């Protein structure tokens, strides 16, 4: 059972066009199983500003106090996820919105509560639940939230959630959709990058800013057995493909 995990960005509706859904239909006709992980950072920041809450970002992660966590849950589960699942349902898919509270789908732990508050990292994904749904041709639509063993909710980077889901399911491909068509080096978009080249790109500071956590998630997924990771602004074009095997950096 080949599985493809797709992480869509915070402005989810930007990715969900006709070409996107045509590709999902194509994959399903090939017998592939599809899992969606959605972000929501844009909408969370927008809501926080509207409610008079300060947005604080450290190392690409949103500092999450109790108030920010409640806003994050409200936006992800009450705004973004219904938007995404509704679009899937309208296209004839059996989509099902899931969160950490769905049979402990995503267990997590705080990264550094003193500095980041309720920001977490994934410790375990409920593989059995996902496999049951995938066997029935459902498309799980997962919010990037975790829950601790003690029941504390956590805000988790969506790229990391997608990476851990892909690793748990031993996915054949992980797509990390963003607002740029891949990784750029000296004015050219790279087509193929090996694990060794990833370290080189980071060391030489060719990759910086928001692309760094994506690249770290991609590397983690490959090391955990995911066959390939694609960073792109859509799922129908080439983008930058990352592989565990040794490839020369190819423009």
From TrEMBL:
Q: Name one GO molecular function term.
A: kinase activity
**Site (described: Transition state stabilizer):** 7, 214
Keywords assigned by UniProt, alphabetized = Amino-acid biosynthesis, Arginine biosynthesis, ATP-binding, Cytoplasm, Kinase, Nucleotide-binding, Transferase
Q: Which residues form the Aspartate/glutamate/uridylate kinase domain?
A: 3-232
Output the superkingdom of the source species.
Bacteria
Q: Which Pfam families match?
A: AA_kinase
Q: In which pathway does it act?
A: Amino-acid biosynthesis; L-arginine biosynthesis; N(2)-acetyl-L-ornithine from L-glutamate: step 2/4
What EC number(s) does the entry state?
A: 2.7.2.8
Per its UniProt record, what InterPro entries does this chain match? AceGlu_kinase-like_sf, AcgluKinase_fam, ArgB, Asp/Glu/Uridylate_kinase, Glu/AcGlu_kinase
User: Where is the protein found, in the record's own terms?
Assistant: Cytoplasm
- Per the annotation, which location comes first and is thus the protein's main one? cytoplasm
What reaction does this catalyse? N-acetyl-L-glutamate + ATP = N-acetyl-L-glutamyl 5-phosphate + ADP
Which residues bind substrate per the record? 40-41, 62, 155
Q: Which residues form a coiled coil?
A: none
Q: What's its job?
A: Catalyzes the ATP-dependent phosphorylation of N-acetyl-L-glutamate.
Family affiliation: Belongs to the acetylglutamate kinase family. ArgB subfamily.
Put simply, this protein is called: Acetylglutamate kinase
